[in-house]
Amino acid sequence: MAPKTRLVRGKVSIESTAGLAADPFPLAKLLVGRRRVPSQARSLRTRTEILDAALALAIEHGPGAVTMQMVAQRAGVAAGTAYQFYDDRDAILYEIYEAWAAEFWSRLMLVTTATWTVANWRELLHAHSTAISRFYYESRTIWPVVRYVESTKIGRTAMKTLLDANLERRMKVMSPLFREAGLTADETRRVVKTLVRIARGHLAYAEVTASEMRELAAADEETQATVIEANLARRPRRRGAAATARIVS
Q: Average pLDDT of the chain?
């Protein structure tokens, strides 16, 4: 039974767990610039209106062209009110990015509850590639914000933190498969790092059509499967050659 995961104020909340336990959201305390997170309903609505206005303006004009004055005007609040919640425009965009990353993390947790084995890895790879590509497609309109945030110093740190956490999560689920095949821990990490980079490369940060995303997901799955198969086949042959050499000597 898969765990039920939901998004609560930008953080992943696990309601129940079966199989591999969920890892904590890695960006929860990294992004900065929020002055306060309100608790009253009216303030929460205002904060949501500010976020929605900033996202709409970033999509229309590009994130770099957005100002706090523009956001306040679109949200229908005074500029001073916007500054009560956020230090500046980038702080708002960081909040949007964090929500996007938290949703990605939620989806990742849902498809990484079972460890991979020789018997199930193809099925689990397909589920992983399908789920993540669907998320990328659903969030395609905010790619300008994602790209902008990841071009900033804070955003680059956040991107690396998320990527490293993704790698560690996939190490947890994939290591049994490669241990079963005889790979060392270092060899397994090298292979898993390659697979994470393949996925990131195929699921580009760009607006695509549904058919284009299906093609990208298929290419991602096929390329990862090729790498996995090559490494599963390589290690036993190497051991066999070593055994033959010992017998001959």
A: 85
